[in-house]
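2024-03-11 09:14:02 INFO worker-7 job=invfold-0412 stage=load source=structure_tokens
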């Protein structure tokens, strides 16, 4: 079931890939951009998570902390993400508990539509993001949630296909410098 703006974000407390304890939902220090991805070797996901990483300082300057959730196990997530230092926590959720709590959807038509996005596929390949072992459901569609310090969802974006995330410009425009 999709979550809506104005609802309370499901509370969770997990250990991120780098060992940090991450708590989301009711006592955030600032706003949180919580993004759900597919598996660690997904070319589209790698392209997007690096885009968010490049914008992490700009997000932080506006009081927004990014979090990335993948359905790969920690060891595989670490393997695919070890080539870059991330400025935000990466969370492994192979049991998909967070995906269920946030209503992240699966869609075969969305999977196929994403595969037809040749521009995104070529950009991912050009940047060295080639597909590898797939962990978890192949047809997971990304979802993004902007959560207030009080744990209320202030923006929701359920992607239409596996390449579709909330535009970062939309997030940044909500909190101008």
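2024-03-11 09:14:09 INFO worker-7 stage=emit residues=177
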């Amino acid at each position: 079931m999709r979550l809506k703006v104005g609802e309370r974000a499901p509370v969770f407390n997990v250990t991120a890939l780098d060992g940090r304890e991450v708590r989301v939902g009711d006592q955030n220090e600032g706003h949180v951009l919580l993004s759900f991805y597919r598996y660690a070797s997904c070319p589209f996901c790698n392209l997007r998570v690096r885009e968010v990483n490049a914008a992490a300082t700009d997000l932080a300057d506006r009081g927004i902390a990014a979090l990335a959730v993948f359905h790969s196990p920690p060891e595989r997530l670490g393997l695919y993400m070890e080539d870059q230092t991330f400025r935000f926590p990466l969370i492994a959720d192979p049991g998909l508990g967070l995906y269920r709590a946030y209503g992240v959807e699966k869609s075969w038509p969305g999977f196929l539509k994403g595969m037809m996005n040749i521009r995104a596929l070529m950009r991912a390949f050009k940047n060295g993001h080639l597909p590898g072992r797939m962990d978890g459901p192949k047809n997971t569609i990304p979802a993004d949630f902007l959560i207030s310090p009080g744990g209320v969802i202030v923006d929701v974006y359920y992607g239409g296909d596996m390449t579709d995330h909330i535009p970062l410009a939309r997030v940044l425009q909500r909190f101008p410098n």
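2024-03-11 09:14:09 INFO worker-7 stage=report msg="The helical segments are 43-61, 74-81, 97-101, 108-115, 118-126, 168-174."
2024-03-11 09:14:10 INFO worker-7 job finished
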